[in-house]
Amino acid sequence: MFDVDARSVPEGESNDVDDEPSTLGEKRLARAVVGGLVLLVAALVGLVFLLVLLVTVAVFPGAVKLDGLAPVFWALLLLAPCSVIAMAITVPTRRLVRVTFTPSPAVARLSDAAFGWLSAFLVGVMLLEWTPLVHAHSVLPAVAVATVGLVLEPLVERVGGSKAKGDQGGTPAR
Question: Does 37 score more than 70 pLDDT?
Fold first, then answer.
């Protein structure tokens, strides 16, 4: 409909659309946006963890004692390192089991669920032991949190999977 010729484009510029930031200001803005998104996601994960922590303390009042509000912040700070340590243990072992035994799809899902539970349990135990001002008298809260995560995982996958399938089929074929 419209014909754009070379005379309508200012000299030194091209018709190509460039999504990459080109100036220093654009690069700083892009970094700030990415940093803000990372902080937002970290805050949401932290809030979910806080909710799980508070529910666990309420359900098992004799198993865990918190000395004030500071342990909550310590636990949020220690969550990432504990997760990395747990994954450093479980991921290689999971891959070794997969390569060594070459399980059927059903056994592979069961194995993944077992290693997922073990990873969540290890994170829970490390947080109970390493968080300052937390006095844990039992590992029952770590078992409960890992088991709840194991039970909720298929539900989250179904909800996330149905949204992803709905997004893929949005444009009809012609």
Answer: yes
Compute φ and ψ for 136, nearest 5 degrees.
-95, 130
Residue among 163, 145, 142, 141 at smallest CA distance from 153: 145
Distances (CA, A) of 48 to 44, 59, 118, 142: 6, 16, 20, 15
Structural contact between residues 71 and 128, judged by C-beta atoms closer than 8 angstroms = no
Q: Flag whether pLDDT at 27 surpasses 80.
A: yes
pLDDT at 159: 75
110-119's contacts with Cβ under 8 Å and 24+ in sequence apart are 113/150, 113/153, 115/90, 116/149, 116/150, 116/153, 117/146, 117/147, 117/149, 117/150, 118/90, 118/146, 119/83, 119/86, 119/87, 119/89, 119/90
Longest Cα pair distance anywhere in the chain, in angstroms? 79
* Helices then strands, each counted (H, E), the chain: 4, 2
Alpha-carbon gap, residue 34 to 38, rounded angstroms: 6
Q: Which residue has the tokens 């922590």?
A: 53
Count the neighbouring beta carbons within 10 Å of the beta carbon of residue 53.
23
pTM, 2 dp: 0.64
